[in-house]
Amino acid sequence: MASGNWTRISEFVLMSFSSLPTEIQSVLFLAFLTIYLATLMGNSLIILVTLADPMLQSPMYFFLRNLSFLEIGFNLVIVPKMLGTLIAQDTTISFLGCATQMYFFFFFGVAECFLLATMAYDRYVAICSPLLYPVIMSQGTRAKLAVASWFPGFPVATVQTTWLFSFPFCATNKVNHFFCDSPPVLRLVCADTALFEIYAIVGTVLVVMTPCLLILCSYTRIAAAILKLPSAKGRHKAFSTCSSHLLVVSLFYVSSSLTYFRPKSNNSPESKKLLSLSYTVVTPMLNPIIYSLRNHEVKKALSRTFHKALAPRNCIL
User: Fold this and answer.
1) Residue of 101, 243, 245, 255 with fewest CB within 10 Å of its CB?
2) TM segments (predicted)?
């Protein structure tokens, strides 16, 4: 580590949005803080409502609750540090802190891919086998599916993070991103990373494409089943139960695919930062909004919850 141009790095510097004027960084801080608080409140509300309301105890809302937990974790890993770099210019992050951030970024990202596939399978069973749905998606089955969705994040995050941070780093410690993502940290390595890059590409393709193919298969079967329904009202009702999930899947996969699968010649650091914001900051805020606005049961449950919360006050007044 001490030979040549290699050095023992104890901390990294997140470049974040340091190239922008201070005034714009202040505006970004306020915008991201608002989105961050909205994300925490929106997803926390989804968790509380799906736990408390007896009408939202079906498997779909169990998986939605898992998604909200995941989105909160995803945000907590990235956004607080990003806000610190914007308002306090606290751009340094320790070696361990950087590795930890990357680990949980991979963990939550992989878990979300598989959880979205599980939610698609849930919709497939609900629409294609409605009579067997309560039997197939029993409490034991849904718990196993949830564990199976969260588990792949552990080996992927462990191998990729441990391997990357075992490399020696060059004298520079500046990460040209607002969080410790793999590609910008990898650029600081002073060693042959060809094998790691092959693993990272293959792993990313498998992690992204395997759930994506499962989602496509589920919705192909769902579409075929919906088209066979005799009434337009039945088709509309069946489709409405899937529309929220389809929108969430589209937002997540389009933004993440544009970030990691674009040619390097078209992938400047600044454009990657903007694309990364879409799935690390914006999408977690939009998910509870999408499910609240496009799902009548959730809207009714939220209304019941607010009425119950306000009822004691009204009685006192």
Assistant:
1) 243
2) 27-51, 63-83, 103-124, 145-165, 198-217, 238-254, 274-293
The residues with which 174 forms a beta bridge, in sequence order, are 13
Per-residue tokens: 199: 């693993």
- Picking from 109, 202, 203, 102, the residue whose alpha carbon sits closest to that of residue 150 is 109
Cα–Cα distance measured from residue 227 to residue 52, given in angstroms and rounded to the nearest whole number = 35
Q: Please compute the mean of the pLDDT values over residues 227-243 and round it to a whole number.
A: 81
| Dist CA 154 CA 111 (whole Å) | 9
The string over 138-157, giving b where at least 16 C-beta atoms fall within 10 Å of a residue's C-beta and e elsewhere, is eeeebeebbeebbebbeebb
pLDDT at position 289 over 70: yes
In this structure, are residues 67 and 119 in contact, taking their beta carbons and an 8 Å threshold? yes
CA–CA separation, 200 and 198 (whole Å): 5
Cα dist. 130→135, 160, 227, 261, 302 in Å? 10, 41, 16, 38, 26
d(CA 40, CA 73): 9
β-strands 11-14, 169-170 pairing: unpaired
17 in helix, strand or coil? Answer: coil
How many separate helices (H) and strands (E) can be counted in the chain? Answer: 12, 5
- Output the pTM of the full model: 0.88
Residue 266 in this model has a pLDDT that exceeds 70: no
